[in-house]
């Protein structure tokens, strides 16, 4: 990447823009979005290790569309183990269905449907699909009715080995919303909408060596790091994230040394080599020290996050575009990569982070406002739907993380709150599922690459030409919804 004119101060994503270059990339579909961070995930996006964001449904969906999700450090290890096992059992193309027994009440069925974006529950007899219940069928029906009394039995079943294009065509021909995939015994494997089938022709899933969906686990730097790292690896984490707010500290350096030792020991025993991500830092010096201590990927970003109060409280942090640019260059010198973590609110921010050299981009709060995030769906007074989000250094998260400590230690830890405990992340009515956001982001990034004449992300980081803009320059680029 090069600047049109060199900046004299540090920059956020909103401070910069890209100019087009002469391009011989004739289609956006010719752009390869494989991450350049050493993980080579087909989509360079990671759902943040935040309790309000990444659980099993987020992990499964992100990996199915080529990205990753990281289970947060606050989730008990046995729960992480069970969740990863479920992710690994889920189908790489078909979405896991919301299933109910024939006798489940309509009220309960309706409460389960929003757990997934496809908007329907499959009624099963054991694992055999019998019918479908959608919210539309529930109109005017008593909430104590049973699923079997409400369901439609007009099912479009497809073989689980069918290719996505033929599933798309079958759905169009049958004018159906949902295809139910079954195995050779007629047992339920998963479901897909026409859009889901279409997506499966555009995205490739992020798979481990055994062809199962990948997921990552975050580990804090306090306590028994050795056991925590080993537990994460035994739980089949495909990536390990050593996680703390201030990654440029001695405790992180020694935790990384332990993590590397345990990781290498595990690799010798199992043949499975897992990359270590560590952060967060915002300077080249921070990157150099974490790489020397054993990080394969360095996580970059202090204070850009939407749930973050660090900058207001401490004055510490750095505008994210400049942090990413400097840290990516430093990591490249050591043959390593970075993740740009936090501050992403528009597809353009992802494109700019990748232009600045990020290997992948981590997103938290934006993804909290989707069906797949961990929280429950809520309605505000105007009937808009949202989910609650909170920062990992908020009083709420600290209370949870320190639950096994003495009341005195907990009270002391609570003094150092650096995040918001409750915020509303509204679901975008146009893009309520995380896959909708992925479509929006990846189509934007593909387009950015063709404007730069880049066929892949490493060419993009080489070729992008970035300028600095005023507040009114940024404002000019925003669409206007009504006349002025
Ligand atoms: N990217 C960002 O800007 C930020 C991210 N976070 C996220 O919040 C979560 C909690 O992280 P964290 O607060 O580090 O908690 P952790 O529980 O991971 O512990 C951090 C350790 O580092 C020590 N420490 C020393 N200086 C600092 C400092 N300035 N800030 C924080 N810890 C420090 C703490 O000691 P002691 O408590 O005794 O000081 C503690 O032992 C993580 O998921 C992290 O990623 C939090 C803040 C900023
Ligand atoms: N200073 C704080 N930073 C936090 C907290 N919780 C999470 N984070 C960081 O934000 C990113 C995600 O950023 P977003 O803009 O996409 O929401 C996350 O990965 C952490 O690094 C917090 O409580 N305080």
TrEMBL record:
Keywords, sorted A to Z: CBS domain, NAD, NADP, Oxidoreductase, Potassium, Purine salvage, Repeat
IMP dehydrogenase/GMP reductase domain span: 11-479
Active site: residue positions: 308
Domain of life: Bacteria
GO cellular component: cytosol
Binding-site list for NADP(+): 243-245, 301-303
GO molecular function: GMP reductase activity; IMP dehydrogenase activity
Catalytic activity, EC: 1.7.1.7
Pfam short name (any one): CBS
InterPro entries membership: Aldolase_TIM, CBS_dom, CBS_dom_sf, GMP_reductase, GUAB1, IMP_DH, IMP_DH_GMPRt
Family: Belongs to the IMPDH/GMPR family. GuaB1 subfamily.
Protein name: GMP reductase
Organism per entry: Tessaracoccus oleiagri
Organism classification: Bacteria, Bacillati, Actinomycetota, Actinomycetes, Propionibacteriales
């Amino acid at each position: 990447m090069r600047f049109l004119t060199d900046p004299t101060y540090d920059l956020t994503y909103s401070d910069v823009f890209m100019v087009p270059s002469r391009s011989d990339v004739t289609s956006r579909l010719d752009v390869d979005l494989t991450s350049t961070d050493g993980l080579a995930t087909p989509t360079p996006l990671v759902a943040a290790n935040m309790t309000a964001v990444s659980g099993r449904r987020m992990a499964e969906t992100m990996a199915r569309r080529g990205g990753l999700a990281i289970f947060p450090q606050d989730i008990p290890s046995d729960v992480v183990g069970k969740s990863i096992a479920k992710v690994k059992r889920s189908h790489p193309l078909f979405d896991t269905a919301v299933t109910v027994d024939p006798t489940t009440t309509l009220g309960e069925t309706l409460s389960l449907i929003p757990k997934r974006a496809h908007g329907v529950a499959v009624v099963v007899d054991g694992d055999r699909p019998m019918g479908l219940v959608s919210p539309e069928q529930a109109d005017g029906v008593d909430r104590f009715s049973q699923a079997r009394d409400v369901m439609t039995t007009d099912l479009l079943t497809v073989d689980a080995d069918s290719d996505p294009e033929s599933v798309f065509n079958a759905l169009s021909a049958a004018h159906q919303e949902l295809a139910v995939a079954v195995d050779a015994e007629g047992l339920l494997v998963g479901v897909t909408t026409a859009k889901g089938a279409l997506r499966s022709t555009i995205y490739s899933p992020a798979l481990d060596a055994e062809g199962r969906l990948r997921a990552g686990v975050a580990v804090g730097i306090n306590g028994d790091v050795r056991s925590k790292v080993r537990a994460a690896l035994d739980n089949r984490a495909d990536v390990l994230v050593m996680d703390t707010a201030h990654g440029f500290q001695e405790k992180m350096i020694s935790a990384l040394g332990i993590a590397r030792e345990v990781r290498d020991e595990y690799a010798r025993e199992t043949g499975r080599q897992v990359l270590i991500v560590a952060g967060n830092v915002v300077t080249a010096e921070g990157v150099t020290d974490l790489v020397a201590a054993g990080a394969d990927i360095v996580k970059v970003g202090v204070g850009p996050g939407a749930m973050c109060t660090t900058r207001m409280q401490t004055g510490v942090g750095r505008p994210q575009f400049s942090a990413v640019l400097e840290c990516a260059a430093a990591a490249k010198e050591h043959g390593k990569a970075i993740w740009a973590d936090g501050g992403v609110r528009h597809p353009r921010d992802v494109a700019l982070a990748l232009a600045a050299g990020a290997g992948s981009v981590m997103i938290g709060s934006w993804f909290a406002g989707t069906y797949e995030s961990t929280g429950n769906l809520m309605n505000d007074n105007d009937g808009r739907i949202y989910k609650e989000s909170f920062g990992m250094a908020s009083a709420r998260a600290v209370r949870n993380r320190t639950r096994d400590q003495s009341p005195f230690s907990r009270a002391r830890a609570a003094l150092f709150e650096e995040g918001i405990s409750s915020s509303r992340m509204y679901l975008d009515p146009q893009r309520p599922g995380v896959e909708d956001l992925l479509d929006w982001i990846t189509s934007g990034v593909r387009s950015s690459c063709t404007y730069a004449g880049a066929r892949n992300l490493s060419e993009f980081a080489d070729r992008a030409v970035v300028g600095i803009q005023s507040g009114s320059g940024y404002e000019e680029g925003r669409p206007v919804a009504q006349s002025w």
